[in-house]
Amino acid sequence: MVYVIALSAEELDGIDTDLRIKQSLTKTVAVASLPRDQSPHITLLVTRSSAETDPCPLLWLGVVRRPRGEKVAAVDSRITVELVRECPVQVTMRSFIDKVPHRARRAVTRALSGEVAVLGEEDSEDLLTALAQQHVLLRRTLDFLGEAAEPDPFDPRRVEDRSWQEQYDMTRLGLSIGNIPPSRLAAWRRPSDPNAPHLAGLIREPFEQGLIENDARHIEFGDDVFTEAGWPSGSRATGASFRCDIQVFEYLGSRIEVANINATPVETRLGADLIYYHEATQSFILVQAKRLPSAAGARWIYVDDQMRGQLDRLEQAAELGRTPQAPHEWRLGSDPCFVKLAYWPLNETIDPGPAPGMYLPVPYVKLLLEDYATHGPAGGTRLGYGYVDRYLGNTEFTALVKNGLVGTVGTTIDELRTLGMERADEGMSVSVVVDRATAPPRETVRERHKRNHARGYDKSLATRMRRRQSRDPGTGQEPLFGS
Predict the structure, then answer these.
(1) Are both 183 and 140 inside the same structural domain?
(2) What range defines the domain where residue 307 resides?
């Protein structure tokens, strides 16, 4: 079935930037107008007009995954349009109606003059078929939305699904820091190989660089970061279980390159890492995820010798930075490595941001472990909710990283390569996220700060990027990851 949301030109202009940045839209509608069918609905966002001479262009397409929405009042419900994508070709609905089978024309005409309309099953099929015949790019967009409408859920009973969920969260965190809508990762199918990285299941976007899948021995990473010669002698990472999948995201002046790296079988992995590297400032942060129980009231873990050893290795990684020599290199502290204690509620939706949890700098964790507050009633040391009074949440942590207030100073690409290899070889699922700004001129520290704090700047940048893409769809920049 199809939702048609018709808004005035003024309303659409007012939400244009949000649609481009968040790639989602929420809308309050009358419960009585919602369908009983619970399956996802393709959504068309058009310019509303009651005059038959007005063109009513189709501007955006998306998916309503929860057609009944979330009830917000006695007679109203809030629906969310996800995976919002700009219509790749010009379609004026008034002139297009003649190409829709006769039985559906009346329903489509009514929808253009309303606000939110839900077409019946037959009318929806006729409309989508006619749209797909307009242009191959529009057909590809509809195919993508149809496939991405129902991503495979994670099954926490399976060890590979838990690993994918954790790696997904680390990648999603990296995209949030880089201002890339995490909805780019929402279209996913479970890989056939349980040892494969999470990105191996990503459904390819219709108009951007697709997934690159490689064996370690054939990977290059910037200036020889990932090459066969770069692997240390005897490394397990050159074995048959090694896998690295790469995805490039370009969005509103940001170029984010993501590599998911698995070097050990899924049963032997020790957790998931994020290494987020900001190329312009040669700075990285490392986050190691630790999984908390999903049940409320029991969100803590025991700290064993293995975890203490992992903390020691994270402290060694923190030594890669150097002392700040300029104002823009100053950090709040010298602690670039963090532990994230994360949980995934069984019956709650946590999209589009990272999973809830607490971020703890490694030196702070070590202090906590020596404090009486983390001693459990039956012995042992516990870490989690109820045992830690102060911590950073998703919002605070991502803001600090976005503005360069935490992280190393002067870490080279070669050092990043070594760190990524070591972490994967130790049994971690590693997400390496490299932030390379592409908006001209090259993004400075000041521009980065301005982009993160000024909504008007985002809108101006979006306008410049639209003009730039209309002249030259490619950026001409070589990827840091390659094959």
Answers:
(1) no
(2) 159-482
